[in-house]
Write a structure and sequence with these properties.
The chain has three domains: 5-60, Orthogonal Bundle (Arc Repressor Mutant, subunit A), CATH 1.10.10.10; 67-136 and 251-292, 3-Layer(aba) Sandwich (D-Maltodextrin-Binding Protein, domain 2), CATH 3.40.190; 138-245, D-Maltodextrin-Binding Protein, domain 2 (3-Layer(aba) Sandwich), CATH 3.40.190.290. It is built from ten helices and 15 strands. It has helices spanning 5-19, 35-60, 75-82, 86-92, 109-112, 144-150, 205-213, 223-231, 265-278, 289-292; strands at residues 24-27, 30-33, 67-73, 96-102, 116-121, 129-135, 138-142, 164-167, 174-179, 192-195, 201-202, 218-222, 236-238, 242-245, 252-257. β1 (24-27) and β2 (30-33) form a beta hairpin. The protein is elongated, with a radius of gyration of 28 Å. Belongs to the LysR transcriptional regulatory family. Pfam families: HTH_1, LysR_substrate. This is DNA-binding transcriptional LysR family regulator. One of its GO terms (molecular function) is DNA-binding transcription factor activity.
């Protein structure tokens, strides 16, 4: 809508009278902001941006989640715990179109236009926003045939005499153990690092799972991957009194998204839906609760 020059001039004069300072230097060549005018403009722009943010935050509460949502996730986790629940998600949110990128590579979300990433483990420092969806528990597993052939380790140090299946994506061949809080001698919280040995390493967690089921050695597997084989008796949980990790940081399963003042409704819908579906504790730990309780 066009505004008359005389109207703008009247408003500026009224503002200058209210502030008690000239905002413009006037000449025949035009108008130039004074120091006071520049200062007022800077603060006014901040106030206007804050007002616009407030409007968008408030209005977004009633927006229907819609549009194309680009999501990246680790391949194995996506196949087992994202894809099976997608039909129900698509039914609940009919205005969302999903573009899935399954890869074990950590993509630069901003460069490749990713709205949301599912990441597993300890997050590195970054400017990205993250919401914890579930814990990421790892347990030592072996097949009944392997344990019958090689005996069952009683303490972490026994693993050094066993064939172990290692994930080559990890920085070294060391597993670190801490006695669980609910186990006997719970006051002993010293970490026990164990240097591993064995003939097989792989860069795919599902390959490690299959090798463990085949009796090729002991593996440190996430419960979201090993739970079915454990329930079916194809794998047995070894060292149940010990918490096992591959690093020092607390691992988890995260929803990660670029930093924005306003998170889009489609991202919020996806994160809330999968947090609800997975639950706390996560559904894949059902039936393993006594072994995993901490």
């Amino acid at each position: 809508m066009a505004v008359k020059t005389s109207t703008i001039s009247r408003y500026v004069s009224a503002l200058e009278n209210d502030l008690g300072i000239a905002l413009f230097n006037r000449s025949t060549r035009g108008l130039v902001l004074t120091e006071g005018g520049r200062l007022f403009r800077e603060h006014a722009m901040v106030a206007l941006q804050a007002l616009d943010d407030a409007r968008q935050v408030t209005s977004s509460l009633n927006l229907t989640p819609q549009g194309v949502l680009r999501v990246t996730m680790p391949s194995a986790f996506g196949r087992r715990h994202i894809v099976p629940h997608l039909p129900a998600f698509m039914t609940r949110y009919p205005d969302i179109d999903l573009d899935m990128v399954s890869t074990d590579e950590t993509l630069n979300m901003i460069e490749v236009g990713i709205d949301l990433a599912i990441r597993i483990g300890a997050l590195s420092d970054s400017s990205l926003m993250a919401k914890r969806i579930a814990p990421h528990r790892r347990i030592v597993c072996g097949s009944p045939a392997y344990l019958q052939r090689s005996s069952t380790p009683n303490v972490p140090e026994d693993l050094s005499a066993h064939d172990t299946l290692r994930l080559s994506l990890l920085p070294d061949d060391t597993w670190s153990f801490t006695r669980r809080a609910n186990a006997k001698r719970s006051s002993e919280q010293t970490q026990v690092p164990v240097q591993l040995q064995g003939r097989l390493r792989a860069d795919d967690s599902e390959a490690v799972l299959e090798l463990a089921v085949a009796g090729c050695g002991l593996a440190l597997l996430p419960t979201w991957l090993a739970s079915t084989a454990l329930r079916e008796g194809r794998l047995l949980h070894v060292l149940p009194e010990w918490e096992a990790r591959t690093g020092r940081a607390e691992p988890a399963i995260w929803a990660v998204y670029p930093p924005k003042k306003i998170v889009s409704s489609k991202v919020r819908a996806f994160v809330a839906y999968y947090a609800e579906v997975i639950g706390e504790p996560p559904y894949w730990d059902d039936g393993l609760a006594l072994e995993l309780q901490t």
